[in-house]
Every structure is written in C-alpha cells, then in structure tokens.
Amino acid sequence: MNCLLCQGIVSSDLTLSKIFSLQRLNPVPVCDTCLKQFVALSTVKTCCECGRKLTANSIDPCQDCVKWHQQFPHLFVNQALFEYNAAMKAYMRQYKFLGDYRLRAVFNQLMVSKLKSFRSSIVVIPVHPSTIQRRGFNQVRGLCEGVQLLDCLKTRYETKKQRQSEKGRFQRLKTEQPFELIPEKASLITNQSVVIVDDVYTTGTTIRHAASLLYRAGASSVSGLTLAR
Ligand SMILES: [Zn+2]
Ligand SMILES: [Zn+2]
What we know:
The longest helix is centred in the middle third of the chain and has 15 residues, at 104-118. The strands form two sheets. A four-stranded parallel sheet has the order 1-6-5-2. The chain has a two-stranded antiparallel sheet with strand order 3-4. By secondary structure, it is an alpha/beta fold. It has helices at residues 15-19, 32-35, 63-71, 86-97, 104-118, 129-135, 139-143, 159-165, 169-175, 205-216, and strands at 77-82, 121-124, 153-155, 179-181, 193-200, 221-228. The chain has ten helices and six strands. The structure holds zinc ion (ZN) (2 copies). One zinc ion is lined by residues 47, 49-50, 52, 61-62, 64-65. Residues 47, 49-50, 52, 61-62, 64-65 line the site of one zinc ion (ZN).
C-alpha cells in the first residue's frame, strides 16, 4: 500500500488509532512519517469553546471566543481534532483545491467515530453549488461518509468569491448570515441536539453563523466538530 500523501510505503502501524485510543480503526493509507506531521489537539490544553491550542498564559475561553459572545450569546462548543499546521494545510490543499477525493480516507474513520459519540443530529456546513461543480464534491461530506446527515442548511451566496472581491469584507462576513434553512427540513431541528461539522475552524464566522441559525430553528443544543483548528 502506498501513502496517499507522499506515495511512500505504508507500514501497518496504527498511529491515528493510538493517538485517539480508537482500536477499531482500520489502518489509514498514509505512512507514519506523514501521520506524525499532524498534531492532535487531544493531548494539549485547548480553548474550552473553539478548541484551539492555548499557550501557558492565554485565557480560557480565548479572546476570540469572548468577542463572539457579544454577537452569538448561545452556548457553542467546538471540538477540533488537529492543529491547522503546515501539514494540515498541505492536506487540505491536496484534498480540496486539487480535488483529490481519495484523501477523505485519511480522516474519514476518525471523523465518523467522533461524530457517532455525539449522539446528535449531524449537520454539515454546506458548500455553494458552483463550488461543488468546480471541485466535484463537498469535502466535509467526504470526511463524514458513513454517517447519516441532516441536510437542513444551504448557502445564500458563494462566500469565497465574496471574500476576495468585496471591500469591508471582514465586517460584512462577521455580521451577515451566509446560510439559510431549507424550509421543509426546519422542523427536524426542533428540540434536537445538533452537531455541526466543518473541515477547518479559522475565524469561527462560518460555524457560529450556522449554529446561530440552528438555535433560532429551535435546536436544544448545538456543538461543533472540525477536523482542524
Ligand atoms: Zn507519506
Ligand atoms: Zn476560543
């Protein structure tokens, strides 16, 4: 078996399984050298709300999360599995932007196993139809392959395009809701505990807007799971 990331030979060492104490995971098609570049956040001190790695003297929740409280007062806790370091950025580039759909297999079992532990309805951050057309897939759905998803959100516009082309974008993106509920699905959210899944938590804008929408639709609790932070 060759490594999906570097084409090197894969030994049968279950590094990911060991890190997350999930013995049931099958070996992933990635070599040990590549796997070791990913830094699991489960072993370090992280922000209790967004899941980022904290330094010794940072406050918990972190400054960013404290700021978000003004805009989104509802409780929202995100769990992130890995640091968004150079290796994870390279992975995302190969998976998402070069469109190598096989790469979902690197983290799929881990994501599915984590998602099942939430015992909640699973909502994936939607991708704009034009992005799907360009890329050929929704990268987050790929990571979640094998669990049942509740498709209740859709995008209102293509966020990436807007981000590149508009001025004053940060303020707008911070305040403008990028998603809307699919009306026929809205009732499925009422009194449900929901977990929102995304690939990367960067500013928190995307997932917090989605969380806010689900709370307004009557969800009893909303939490997050992201592959990276
Ligand atoms: Zn490798
Ligand atoms: Zn935080």
